Structures are given as C-alpha cells and as structure tokens.
Amino acid sequence: MTLWKPDPTFYPSPRDAAEAPPEKLAYVAAFDRSAERPDALAVLDTDPASPAYGTVVGWTDLPHTGDELHHFGWNACSSALCPYAPHPHVERRYLIVPGLRSSRIYVYDTKDRVSPELVKVIEPEELGKRAGYSRPHTVHCGPEGLYVSALGGYGDDGPGGIAILDHNTFEVLGRWEVDRGPQYLAYDFWWHINHDVLVTSEWGTPSMIEDGVVGELLLGRKYGHKLHFWDLRKRRHVQEVDLGDQHQMTLELRPAHDPTKTYGFAGVVVSVEDLSASVWVWHREGSRWAATKVITIPAEPASPDDLPDVLKPFGAVPPLVTDIDLSVDDQRLYVSCWGTGELKQYDVSDPFKPVEIGSIRLGGIVDRAAHPAAPGERLAGGPQMVEVSRDGRRVYVTNSLYGAWDDQFYPDGVGAWMAKIDADGFTLDERFFPHGDDFRGLRPHQTRLQGGDASSDSYCYP
Amino acid sequence: MTLTAVILLGAFHGINPAMGWLFAVARGLQERSRDLLLQSLPVIALGHLASVALVVAVVSATGSLVTGTALAIGAGVLLVGFGLWHLLARRHFRWVGMRLSLPQLAAWSFLMSSVHGAGLMLLPVLTRMPASHHGHALSGGLLVAGVHTLAMFLTATVVAVVVYEFLGVAVLRRAWFNLDRMWAFALVGAGVLTLVAAV
C-alpha cells in the first residue's frame, strides 16, 4: 500500500539529505567462507544514546549456504522524487541482497523490526534466463526499477552487465543493455541521473576471480581497466575510457551527488608497474568523457618474511584500494587501502586537486595495527567497505574483501571487525568496535545505514 | 456550476507535482534558469490539452452514435474501472530521461496526463451536454478542455514559480499529499454518480 505523504527518508537534494537525522541501525552483509553455515544480515546499533550501542542487536540467517553476500541496496530511494516519473509514496523498506557466488537475490523486509525478514528469493535461473546474467553485485534504485549489475553471463563466463528488476514485485524484467558496444567485463555502476548518463566499471569474469586473484592474468594485464559511459535512456554504450592496462581492476564508482555536476571518482586496485593504487576523476572534455588520475598511493616496502606468498616476489605491500566513498555533500572522499591497512580522508572540494587531510591505520598485511578499544589485538584485514552517513559525520568500515582474496592476502585468517570513525577530527570511536565472535564466525562486508547513506541515493534537484 | 467544476479540476491537475510543474522546476534548477522553467510550462499544458481533447473527441464521436444514456453508462463504467485500477494496481508511470527537448516534454505531458486519466473526469460534464448536434457537442467539449487546461496551466505556473523562487523543493517532503490516490477515489466516485444519474 502506498503512503499518503512521501517516505520521510526521501530527500529532493543532497543538501536536504545532509540534514537527515543520524541513523540508529546499520545493516551489514556477513558471509561464511566455508559455505557450511548460512550467510547473514547482521544489524548493528548505531545510536550512541542506546545501551546496546556498537553491538549486534539483530541477526537474520539466510535460508541457504554458500551465497557469499557482498553488496546490497534498497528497494526505493530519493530518486522516487525525480520529476519525470515521481512516485514518492512508496516505502524504503526492503533490502535487495544478492549472493555474489550463488547468484541468488534475496529480498528482506526491514519495516518495524530489527532483524530483517525474508520476503522473496529470486533464483539464479530467473536472473539467468530472463537477463542472461549471474553473480549479481551492485544494486541501485533508479528510474526504470531496480538496477543490478552482474559479473558473469548465464552459463557463460561473460559478458557481465546490468539486469532490471521490477521494484514492486522484484521480478527480473530482463537485460538492461540494448547495445553494449565493446563492453565485456563488469563490476560497479552508477549514473548522472539528470544527464541521462550511466557509468560502469570493470573487475573480471567469474573464472578470473572466484578462485582468487590469478597472477598470470594480473601480470598479463587482463583484469578490467576501463570505464564505460552509457546513454541511460536509450540503454546504449556511448564511449569507453581506458585508464591504461597497467591500472588493474577499476572498481567503485562514486559520481558527484550534485545532479548538475558531471564528474565522479573511480578507484583502481593496483598498478602492475609499481603496485601503487590510484583514484581517478572522470569528467567531460568537450563532448567526450575523459579520466584523470588525481590520487596515487604508493606501495610500502616490506620484508618478504612478513608477506603472504602472493606478495613475496615483490617485497612490498600494495595499498589495494578496494573501496572509496564520497560524502553526500561531495566534499570528502574516503579511500580504503585494504593491503596497507589504512583509511584516508581527502578534501575533494576541488575534485581535480584532492588534499589528504586524515589517515587512520587499522590492520594491514604487515602493520596489523590495533583498534584503541582492544589495543592488544593485532588486527588482520584492513579498512575495506566504507560507508558514510548522510550528514557526513560518521564513517563505518568493515574488513573483509572477498572470500578467496581474503585468504590470499591474509592467509592466517582475515578475522572480522567493523569500526566507526568520527569524520570531524578523523578519530576512531572507542565505543564502536564489534569484532571477532560478535560476527559469529562470519566475515562482514558491505554496510547499509538505516534510511540511506552516501552510496544509496540519487537526487534529481541541486 | 459545471464551469466551476471544470476549473477546479484544472486547478487540481495544476497543483499535482506529477502533472508537470515539478518537471518545469527541475529543468529550471538544473540550468539555474527561470526562463527554462517558464518555457516548459506552456509546453506541458499543451500536452495536457492534447490528452484532454482526445477524450472530448472520443466522447463526441461516440455520442453521435449512441444514446445519451448509453454514453453516460459507458462513461460511468469507464471511470469506476479506471479509478479502481489506479487504486489497486501498484504500477506507476515510467519514464527515463531528464534531458528533453520541448516537443519531447509535450509528449511526456501528454502521456503522463493520459495515464493519469486527466481527461476522464470531464466525462460527467461532457455526457450531460446536449448532444443534439454533433459539431456543436465537439466545439462545446473543446471549450471545456480549453478552460480546464487554462486553469491547470495558471495553477501550475503559480505553484512552480513560488516553489522555484521562495519555497524550494524541500517543501515536497511535507506537502506532497498522495494526490494520485485521492484522484483514483474521485474517479470512482464520479463514475458512480454518473451511473446513478443515468439510470
């Protein structure tokens, strides 16, 4: 049933969204690497006034095992206010939760309950037969329904692409692309909604990633290194921008939230030339799209004795930038260096000249930096998925990247932890550090904040 | 009385953000141009007029073939059915694309108004008009459509300018009452009244 007034979590502009009340709950996807126990949605209390602050207060096991939960998203968001097909009286209440390994997509209801409740399962066959895809990944609520990117084809390794789901029934409607041009690899996507532009990035096909990073493919520069720009209306490929094949794995895409702007940030995991990581800005150059490298983070030299087998030949720790997140006001960019165990904060008020203004060390392949709440504990993993509250004041990170890759880079166990950083002053919150057994043996991945966050909503008004 | 109803219906459509003023405001905000906003509104009204006039034409063509009672009953059933469909179906108007030319914007408005059933509410008025002479009914109907659209256009313009210049779109969060659901109830009600009057 629709509402009489717009859902209160919908905001016309990013400026309005920055005034949103602080989130009281955070939903975290957690998965069992052994695939013996079900993955789960863990719910964290993020209300500092609550006695349960910083603890797991809700938990929902999935009905199957081996899904490998990864990213997920909401059924509806602020784009429901967009003027060309407004429907703001729907509710933001369902989480759309893909299993990256199983290709199942789950729909969970979050309304009036702490632990989400399962309402629908989309089987891999439905996604495969109707859209031709498998390994669903990023979910965004948009003008034609729910858009879900997928890394693999159905029965084939590729191409990966985007499937469209009906946002009422959650049925798979089909493949989004009408003309995919040269695009084959897939990973993340988002858009400049007011410019009718969609952007996609590249990781690899299932065979390239599911058993871990493949050295020959990496050194052979076979992982993704391009951005693709599409006509959101006509569903056609418009242009590809190659960052250079030394820049392996172009992952997260964070377009400016201001709908009048046409730039965004893309993170690159590693350069095969010097193991550095980089962040790029895409932008208009005349009538074409271009990308400019604006941040380079060098590898840190290390003794081979301290390195996992995969890195021993190099004698250095790559930063491995595996997630970035842009605050809703487009002023701060957070960059996760999962290899070195560092979260960097940049002032990106001039997107072409980011200024590093903060750094926090946690975990890391060599450092194993501890959290102030448990100073004696050497942490494995590093800041990985990063999420920013709508008001930009709180930053949440979790520590697992992707099962098979965790095992390569942290072979003695990646552990499980989540941390919260206060953005002003850029300090760790000592009261918020769920870790170890709090996650019941599962590894935490993406976080979604109640009511929306910096990577969940698109806005149609400046 | 009839004229008042026609004008009020126009104002109701004009106030509804989904019928176009919001699109005009968004276009203005996107380019920081009040001119673009003011340019968009007549085009949106034109699309609305086309949608309403289509209903008028169909009614007048049908009216020349069947009796007034049959026409009223048909109109009543159509209204009830359309209203119920709007109430019960969970689908909503779909459209992708923000960057439209003015002709595309008119087409958008035509489709949006038609899906909304904007012209249908004039059915009770149209079926009560004397249908003795076909050409006469058509011109009378088009006058109704014109007055309706003018009311819609003036209301939309006032709302759009006030939101653009003073209130800001944040007002939508508080003030956007679910007019579509109200509209669906109204369609059903008008259909029932038309049926009652006909039999």
TrEMBL record, chain A:
Catalysed reactions, semicolon-separated: methanethiol + O2 + H2O = hydrogen sulfide + formaldehyde + H2O2 + H(+)
Compositional bias per record (Polar residues), positions renumbered to this chain: 447-462
Region (Disordered): 443-462
Name of a matching Pfam family: SBP56
Gene3D superfamilies referenced in this protein's UniProt entry, alphabetically: YVTN repeat-like/Quinoprotein amine dehydrogenase
EC identifiers of the protein: 1.8.3.4
Enzyme class: oxidoreductase
Pathway assigned in UniProt: Organosulfur degradation
SUPFAM superfamilies assigned: 3-carboxy-cis,cis-mucoante lactonizing enzyme
Family: Belongs to the selenium-binding protein family.
Cross-referenced PANTHER family: METHANETHIOL OXIDASE
Protein name (record): Methanethiol oxidase
Source organism: Microbispora amethystogenes
UniProtKB/TrEMBL annotation, chain B:
Name this polypeptide is given: Uncharacterized protein
Domain of life: Bacteria
UniProt KW keywords: Membrane, Transmembrane, Transmembrane helix
Record-annotated membrane-spanning stretches: 36-58, 65-85, 105-126, 138-162, 182-198
Organism encoding this protein: Microbispora cellulosiformans
